[in-house]
Design goal:
Number of domains: 1
Helix content: over 70%
Radius of gyration: 13 Å
Structural class: mainly alpha
Oligomer: single chain
């Protein structure tokens, strides 16, 4: 599965139905989940890595606009 992080981040940044707080909250939830997995010695799911990258880029694009 190929994930186009930039395209998904662009779509998310332009989506007016999702607020800045919603993006921040989702990013915080993912960061917490990654932290818990790391602390427990569990493997890091690649889906969470991609989701974090998408959310980070979307936040940057929104703040730059």
């Amino acid at each position: 599965m190929k994930v186009d992080v930039n395209a998904l981040a662009d779509d998310l940044a332009r989506d007016g139905s999702i607020g800045d707080y919603d993006i921040w909250r989702a990013l915080k939830t993912i960061e917490d989940e990654l932290y818990r997995a790391d602390r427990r010695g569990r493997p890091i799911p690649m889906d969470l890595i991609f989701a974090r990258a998408i959310l980070r880029k979307a936040r940057l694009k929104r703040s730059a606009a």
